[in-house]
Design a protein that fits this description.
Shape: globular
Oligomer: single chain
Largest sheet: 5 strands, mixed
Number of helices: 0
Number of strands: 11
Length: 107
C-alpha cells in the first residue's frame, strides 16, 4: 500500500539556522502530499500541501517540493524560530488519518 516514511526523530536547531525534515513516500500513482504541524497542547493542523508532481507548498516560512524523481517531500525552513518548536507529520492522501511517525523539532 501507499506509505510515507520519516526517519529524523527529534531534530534540534539553534534559532536562526536552517532545518530540513525528511519525508519520502511510496505510492502507486501521484497522491496528494501534506505536512501537518502539532504545537504543544494543540491538535495537528495542516501546514502545507502539494496536490501534484513538482508542486511547491509554502507557509510560515516553510516550504516543501513534491519530487517524484526522489519520491520525497522534504520540509525546509531557512531560519527557524523558537515558535517553530512542534511535532511535524508528513502524510499522503490516503494516510492522513494514519500518518507514519513524527519528526519532533525542538529548539
Amino acid at each position: 500500500g501507499n506509505s510515507v516514511t520519516q526517519m529524523d526523530g527529534q531534530v534540534s536547531r539553534s534559532e536562526g539556522t536552517s532545518v530540513t525534515i525528511n519525508c519520502t513516500y511510496s505510492a502507486s500513482g501521484y497522491p496528494a502530499l501534506f505536512w501537518y504541524v502539532q504545537y504543544p497542547g494543540e491538535g495537528p493542523q495542516l501546514l502545507l500541501k502539494a496536490m501534484k508532481a513538482n508542486d511547491k507548498g509554502t507557509n510560515k516560512g516553510f516550504e516543501a517540493t513534491y519530487n517524484t524523481e526522489t519520491t520525497s517531500f522534504h520540509l525546509e525552513k531557512a531560519s527557524v524560530q523558537e515558535s517553530d518548536s512542534a511535532v511535524y507529520y508528513c502524510a499522503l492522501s490516503d494516510t492522513v488519518t494514519e500518518t507514519a511517525g513524527g519528526a519532533e523539532h525542538k529548539l
